[in-house]
Amino acid sequence: MDEKLRDDIPIFQQIAETIESGILEGSYSIGDRVPSTNEFAKFYQINPATAAKGINQLVEQEILFKKRGIGMFVGDNARNIILSKRKERFYHDYVVPLRTEAARLGISEDELNDWIRKGDRDEN
Amino acid sequence: MTGSERVIVMKIELLETSKSYGSKQALKSVSTTIEPNKIVGLLGRNGAGKTTMLQILAGHIKPSDGRVLINGLEPFNNRKALQHICLISEANNFKRKLKIREVLKTVSRFYPNWSQETAERLLKTFNLDPGMSAKGLSKGMESALSITIGLSSHTSITIFDEPYIGMDASARYKFYDVLLEEYESYPRTFIISTHLIDEVSSLFEEIILMKEGKILTHESAEELKLKSLQISGPRAKVDDFIEGRQVIHAAEIMGQKTALLYGEGLDLNKAKAMGLLTERSSIQELMVHLTEKEEKLYV
Q1: Domains of chain A as residue ranges with CATH
Q2: Which of A3, A5, A6, A7 should one mutate to test binding to chain B, selecting the residue with the greatest count of B CBs within 10 A?
Q3: Could you state, in chain order, the average pLDDT of each consecutive group of 10 residues for chain B (299 residues)?
Q4: Which ipTM was obtained for this model?
Q5: Are A45 and B180 a contacting pair at CB < 8 A?
Q6: H or E, element range at B115
Q7: Per CATH, the architecture of B12-222 is what?
């Protein structure tokens, strides 16, 4: 878990994303109980209503499901739902700004495509 | 929490409440409602009227004009209401002649729901020895004892007015932890006024921002944050985006301009799509710029 909260996106969204990342990375599997509202509140020192908002968002999206009086659990289809959400966001968060900045710097299509292909190898 | 304890839900209403000290008007016809069981942050510069408002809410002073109602009752000189409200001030929350143990015993008589168990646990948390004389306490220890009193009072409305003068960061973080624990096990209204906004703002569900004796805004902390947007980029683009919007701060260097906007419907993605750099500002920054003396009222 990231210990620090960021200022630029709402806290409830960061709570939701923390849980999503935990599921994507395999720390939480189908049927596992995720931390409660109060556990999140204490860990990040945030208002419990804020944590609840993040968790409830995931319940609405059927990533989590609620067992009354027991807690929140990872839903059967959680991983797929998160993946499709993240892919869509990848386009907006990475591809669009990448192309915008490339255009500003006068980087050609070919150059850009070249870099995308080899970027992965440079990293490793 | 014992079986006999009962959480009494208490709503606070301020109705055109004013307070004057001689010719100085500390509070200028303030109206708002604080719904029960929320953690509310009260922010504003020195002299904005925060302490006056809190003292009126807590029934310590009487408004010069207008009313304050706690579940429909005026708290001033009203024992029925007062036993459910605890106000912890910056200093002088207890007699210095007593030992810590005696201080707690004395204050516990005011509050029917007092939790001795909480008090003893918090003394340990803050490393306070019950046998110690209150006279010998450092500033930070004094604040820790005051906080212990506030949290142990188990009052429906617990108010902290700048509660942690002299407390170091580690003691303050302990305070935030125990505040949340107490809020979980015994939900009630907490109102906290503070200067250390960055540190605590995520604890608040609602924020009341005061300026010159008036309430500038009272809304959910999250919505307040969404009402601000800082953008930067080439001057022409920035000017294009900010046209017709409320700019609360702007600065420019080498043709690059930064502007802090405030208001409804600030679309972060739209700014991004225009190639501008975007940032949401912290509650602290927003407070500083919104309460700037020379600014006009935007709310």
Answers
A1: 11-78 (1.10.10.10), 84-123 (no CATH)
A2: A7
A3: 60 96 93 96 93 95 95 91 92 84 93 95 95 90 94 96 90 93 94 89 94 94 88 92 90 91 85 85 86 56
A4: 0.77
A5: yes
A6: none
A7: 3-Layer(aba) Sandwich (3.40)
